[in-house]
Amino acid sequence: MNFNNLLDLYSLGEKTVLFKHVESNELLPFANSIEKFRLEIQNRYENDDHLVEVLNLLKKVFFKLASSLLPYNKVINKDIEVQIISKFIQIKKSYPELFTKVVIQIAKSFKEVLESTNNSLYDFLCNYINSRAEVGLKVGIVTKRAITIEERFLIKDRLKSFLKESFFTENSFRKDIETFDEVVFVGNPAYFGEYVKNTFKGKTVAFISYDIFTNSISPNKIFEDIDKKGLYSTIFDNVSFGEPIQKKSNITLEQAELLNTAVSKFLEEQKNTLEMNSQDAVEASIVYLENDRFLFAPKDSKIRVFSPNEKSNFIKQLNFKDIEEDDFIVIRNDRDTRLIAEVADHDILKKNAEKYRLLQNEWKGRLRFNVKKKGIRKVSEILINKYNINTASIASLRSWCNEDSICPTELPKILKALKYDEEIIKEIYNTMKIIQLAHRKAGRIISDKLMNELSNDILKELQEKGYYTFMSKEFNGASFNIERIVSIDRSRHLIAPYNLMKPMNID
Asked: Which residues pair with 294 in a beta bridge?
């Protein structure tokens, strides 16, 4: 990535955008039967919760098949297969008419897909690229989700050896400014989003998708290109478009629904889990990651960011409010707060660590006891009205009860409200300030040590997968992930501490 790449991006000259359809002889019957099931439960079963759950599972399986480049019989694992068969048996018992009318056809088409040893998308992709092959041709292959090691091996094994192919996830391709002779998107434009419709990084750009989906881009007409300020867009100058292709079915399955459904389901489960112990909850926002994953980040947290283009200080801690899309964040695959505490105790507090932690746990335990006994809202009202603790909102109380908060601004007042005498208040307050400072120093120590273990050599893997996992020798083999942020939903949700900063899959 350099200035020459930037010049190339804007001097490609004439560009051609092509749309290619893959015949889906195996997947089309399965997709049509799922769509029929969707309409049936919508029109005749009033979106019965149990049936909707089965529908979501079938959608998930369908899109896993449709996005994979492995032979169909290797895509779905046995556990999912058994789960689906179990759902079919339940429907047969509870909804015999629906089973006979619709579900039996889903079962038959699903069985046919699972027995198929080919993959039409993989075959078409490799044949198309080989048909364009010239010595030294640069090809960028872009997938929505990271391809597996096995998929990449199969592609490289089938492509002509003199090609120069590079693999990208959608988001890593968006961030990279390298240009190519050929760019191939595995999926239609709607699958990838707006960026691929207006930035063309290849002399030829091809979108390859199953004929189940419409494959097209609609360039604006000349007067539509003039916006309200009178500005004219030149995005499509020197770009010629191939014929758009309409889908060969009436299905309305949308993959984006799966991620939204997974997030909504998780939030509902959190709400039910926390009803009895809401004082333990932490206010957090949803951070969407590559490969249809997400995590919850505490609103007041500090997060490590990996900046691969920095020559030094390429791992730094930022406040969550300063984190942005496309940032790479560094996450320990166990609670990060625990690591900071471990380093603070071992490297800074040393022999005093045990005594200081006992004091910390003691006052927090007393606060939790009061919240559990009187209720979080009542305790908040008492602290604000009786003890003039203006920061004692319900959200603050939740924060004070968990391990992330060490020394609240009005801690002496809180301790007084908890019936500690003046001497103990002074001791606890001074100790919490020492722990807080130790945690800040520990955060810097962790960042410095991680920098010694990372280099820009990991960029290629980040480009291809959207994340990178490594074991840290500095921290006794602790596992860390570097994850690319796709988007951030800043709205706040109450989340259990053990579910924070933990990447979750929709699968």
From this structure: 288, 504
